[in-house]
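re: the backbone from monday

yeah here it is again, tokenized this time
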């Protein structure tokens, strides 16, 4: 049977950066991170710089738990970066929280990273042989070590050289030498966008964070691009030759906030279109369409509208639940799901239900929800999924579990249907998903095992650097 003891959301990290002398950069970063909280809940941190010295505060937990008004007020500087973490390489420990800060031959540097390197172990070994020491077990520390190693050249050249060594996914913000830098890997797997607030610039994993701090969206970083933000404004330096862009499809399906737009695709709109595609691929004669909130909501609306079916609030999400910290016993796991979601019997009773969620990963949530909806009186439960089956692990920064734990890797379609207990089960096709996204330039590795960036065997485990 499956080991459910590792049940937790499938997340990654969020980064934010701002260059704004005479503004409260720590507070703005705090708000930016608050908007990106869904990207990681294990730890949070903010580093501020006056152009020379860097101060950092980080801690385990949510942004609101790590920072108080007092702490924010005492972080002074003209620029800042921040990070919310969901660990992918290196355990969830304070020592691994970001931003990472180092002293090097030219002063101080702070770095925050979203993504996952696929050659971190090899790079770490090589750096270690050349005398580098490490204070964390993250892949992100490899990046900062490489930059300082190459810093005999100008900082921009050092960044280019570093990017030539790195494989994998990285959206990175850096404070160093009176400047704020942003880097995006040549495949553009993880998002990073630029905002303008007055005359000043900021960087964020998702555009929703720009809205929160009152910045105008300027554009996404190009794959392989480096941007430099300082007293003179913003300039771009082509870092590495851009590959065919492979931005992560899972960002649109599940991960990013619906009000964000990534690489010209609005997340909520793409989910709506996934629902429309599902309606074309699998029209079901039902009485009511419901969503697993929140990430299933837009798809369920698209499905219902296309087929002219009513949409109802069949499952209600407790808005105060972030992570459920589900205990590894059957009873506590069920409490965990019930704490987060509850069936609304008054709309479900005696109805034939189509229930739409964005994904099935390990299968834990789905089986509980189908049972819950039946218990609330539904006559039939048809379960539709707005992503193809997740059958391969992500090595680029989304923690979707090891291959053996993925239900689509273990069971065939009928086996999964039986496991979740639905009357019928249908996943969107890969073609349907691509039509909904309106581009083929996306990474679909977790669905089809075709990895756009090679992953060495040494980098296939969570603690591969530790
Ligand atoms: O098959 P599983 O391993 O249970 O994973 C699938 C579920 O996980 C995600 O939700 P999650 O509860 O992580 O977060 P959400 O509330 O943001 O949707 C996703 O939206 C599915 O509902
Ligand atoms: N999910 C992420 O983006 C995590 C960043 C980095 N790999 C870490 O584990 O700290
Ligand atoms: Mg969910």
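seq for it, each position gets an aa:
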């Amino acid at each position: 049977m499956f080991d459910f003891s590792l049940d937790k959301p499938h997340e990654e990290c969020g980064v934010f950066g701002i260059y704004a002398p005479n503004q409260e950069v720590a507070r703005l970063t705090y708000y930016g991170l608050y908007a990106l909280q869904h990207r990681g809940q294990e730890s949070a941190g903010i580093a501020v710089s006056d152009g020379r010295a860097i101060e950092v505060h980080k801690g385990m937990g949510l942004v609101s738990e790590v920072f108080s008004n007092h702490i924010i007020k005492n972080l002074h500087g003209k620029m800042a970066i921040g990070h919310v973490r969901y660990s992918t390489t290196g355990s969830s420990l304070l020592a691994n929280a970001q931003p990472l800060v180092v002293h090097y031959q030219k002063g101080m540097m702070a770095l925050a990273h979203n993504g996952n390197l696929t050659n971190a172990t090899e790079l770490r070994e090589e750096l270690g042989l050349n005398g580098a020491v490490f204070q964390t077990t993250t892949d992100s520390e490899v990046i900062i070590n490489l930059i300082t190693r190459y810093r005999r050249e100008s900082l921009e050249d050092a960044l280019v050289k570093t990017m030539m060594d790195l494989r994998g996914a990285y959206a990175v913000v850096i404070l160093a030498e009176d400047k704020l830098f942003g880097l995006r890997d040549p495949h553009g797997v993880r998002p990073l966008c630029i905002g303008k607030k007055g005359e000043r610039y900021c960087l964020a994993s998702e555009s929703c964070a720009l809205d929160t701090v009152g910045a105008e969206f300027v554009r996404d970083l190009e794959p392989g691009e480096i941007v430099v933000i300082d007293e003179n404004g913003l300039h771009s330096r082509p870092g590495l030759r851009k590959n065919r862009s492979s931005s992560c499809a899972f960002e649109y399906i599940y991960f990013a906030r619906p009000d964000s737009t990534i690489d010209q695709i609005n997340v909520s709109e793409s989910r709506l279109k996934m629902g429309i595609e599902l309606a074309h691929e699998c029209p079901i004669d039902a009485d009511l369409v419901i969503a697993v909130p929140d990430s299933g909501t837009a798809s369920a609306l698209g499905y219902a509208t296309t087929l002219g079916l009513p949409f109802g609030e069949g499952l209600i999400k407790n808005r105060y639940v972030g992570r459920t910290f589900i205990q590894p016993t059957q009873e506590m796991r069920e409490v965990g799901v019930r704490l987060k979601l509850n069936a609304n019997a008054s709309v479900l009773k005696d109805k034939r239900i189509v229930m739409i969620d964005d994904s099935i990963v390990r299968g834990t949530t789905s089986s509980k929800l189908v049972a819950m909806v039946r218990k609330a009186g539904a006559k039939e439960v048809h379960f539709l999924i707005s992503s193809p089956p997740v059958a391969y692990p992500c090595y680029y920064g989304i923690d979707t579990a090891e291959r053996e734990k993925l239900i689509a890797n273990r069971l065939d379609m009928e086996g999964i249907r039986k496991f979740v207990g639905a009357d019928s089960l249908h996943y969107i096709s890969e073609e349907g998903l691509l039509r909904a996204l309106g581009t083929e330039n996306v990474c679909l590795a977790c669905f089809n095992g075709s990895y756009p960036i090679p992953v060495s065997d040494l980098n296939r485990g969570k603690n591969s650097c530790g």
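Residues 1-8, 324-328 have pLDDT under 50 and may be disordered. The chain has two domains: 14-241, 267-438.
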